[in-house]
Amino acid sequence: MIERVECAGRNLEVVWDDGLVLHTNLRLSGTWHLYRIGERWRKPGEQMRVAIEVPEWVAVCFNAPVVETYREFDRYRHPGFGRLGPDVVTATDAQLTECARGISQYPDPQATVAEVLLDQHLVGGIGNVLRSEILWSCELSPFAVVSELHPEDCVHVINAAARMLRSNAQPVYRVTNAELPGGLAVYGRNGQRCARCGDTVHVRNVGENVRSLYWCPGCQVLHQPVTTHTGEQPREMDPHPAAAKYLADLPWRRDSLAG
Known about the structure:
three-stranded antiparallel beta sheet, 2 domains, alpha+beta, single chain, Helicase, Ruva Protein, domain 3, four-stranded antiparallel beta sheet, N-terminal domain of MutM-like DNA repair proteins
């Protein structure tokens, strides 16, 4: 018997009365549909990852990149140690403190803070857009490893996340900084001038899921590693020659190249 269904961002969990939990992370491609029995599906059957059927209805999950199960009463059977972290929109002060402690005590001390912020088992609700904006707000290098962070850095990051996500709970469009054009400081602004220091915003595809990470190398220098080279040259924007010429012609780039 299904007891409840919980949704946190793009994560949806179906919980049965025996403690079994079906966890799906929809990311960018996944979706759940609800059909009456016999009704034609709007997506091909080969895209189905999960189907839950009852006498009159069937719930179908299509194209979810992550589909897994674990038992609620034995969280250590789950590779990510079970339950999702608290949603920072509704989290209490005590829960936010635990999230900050979770960053500083992360199981992989060499993980970058940019990777850790997307770990939904640590803290829920932070997506790809918000992680770039949070790190910019904290002037923190996205390539800083969590073992180098101070406790106050972790608190600063979680508080910034809570502030930004709560400010977006009601508006119909995403705003992280109302004083900036479009409300975004770095996300989607690759090749443009940083509103804080005037340097050029960079973008690089990073992590297991190759998500686009935006940051300003001019002012996000807190706990910056000696080198962030990973064998892949950082990409400021589209590598097309026309884009390279556009970057070279930016006024602040010409000034810096001239010395």
